[in-house]
Amino acid sequence: SGELYCSLPKPRNVHFESINMKNILHWSAPEGTGDGVLYKVKYSVYGVGKWIRKPECRNINRTWCDLSSETSDYEEQYYASVKAFLNGMCSDWMETTRFNPLTDTKIDPPMVSVSSTEKSISIILTAPEKWKRSSEGESVSLLQVYPGLQYNVSVLNKKTKKRWFFSISNNTLVVPWLEPGTAYCVSAQIHVTTPLLHSGFSKEYCIATLKDKTA
Amino acid sequence: TAGNKIFHFGSCRISMSVTEIRSGFTAIKANIQARDPVRTLSILSYPHSLHKVKSSDRCCITHHLFNFYVDKVFKHCKTEDSYVNRKISSIANSFLSVKRKLGQCHEQKKCMCGQESTEKFNQILANYEGLNVTSAAIKSLGELDILLDWVE
């Protein structure tokens, strides 16, 4: 490819950062280099013979490259590699470890919506969607990707500071026998048993039960 | 044991400690895969992914694969790292128990092999025999998540 003798140090820490299967390749500049370094990126499907260049990440000076589209089939595994150029010099390619989108992605917390009656609160949880090419593209919930997906739900009585935890498989929960006119705060987390994955807890969503009309 | 899950392969039902196997593999995945420099060949996925196997053939392929890992893979995966070796033997023990259960299903005629599963398994064996034993065993071990992702 007409490249010069490659004496530049390699890019460092080349790795995928993945959230909801939005798979971004990240790396650090070669040791001892300041500004002006350019990069190019290639990727390959594990078990398939060829490396594929990513044109949108050719001669770039940023240290990341979005490979979500190229790695969207989560039944496959991938490698990616980065090469650096500076002042006519180049580096060797620096590769990631094998990337498995199914097990190596992080999952966002679920969306939480709450409503209340006098003595109960109802909670509806929505799992995040898998990354998709465009907003018009077909939405795939992570629930479809991980059939064993469950929700851990925390409910806090703001007055007594008492907290309950629930683990549910479906996405709705009604918490009965609560105190009227009292504020409760709900937070939820996604938990997948195999492969073992879990999101952080969502922020708290607080709501008050209705006042007791008979009181 | 922790994380036992019941798997249904047609009329063959077996419990498998998937979480235990997964966590064992996750602990050594980077180490084992780093020992496999061949990016261009997959033992389990070449030329076709396991996901292409018909559901009627799933039991037979799973039975073949657990036998394959017990008989041809784990024993050739000795490393210089005692931690890795311990994890490998723990995974091997889990596989051994699943292999026995699948064997019982096979004996009870609940795990029949069709032509497709036989062809697919022969392809896997051909991929394995295309490399020297140690490289083939390490590559196969490094593909354990491919097997687990498919089984689940």
UniProtKB/TrEMBL annotation, chain B:
UniProt subcellular location: Secreted
Domain of life: Eukaryota
PROSITE patterns, A to Z: PROKAR_LIPOPROTEIN
Keywords from the UniProt entry: Cytokine, Disulfide bond, Secreted, Signal
Pfam families the UniProt entry points to: IL10
Keyword hit for S-adenosyl-L-methionine: no
This protein's name: Interleukin family protein
Source organism (scientific name): Aramus guarauna (Limpkin)
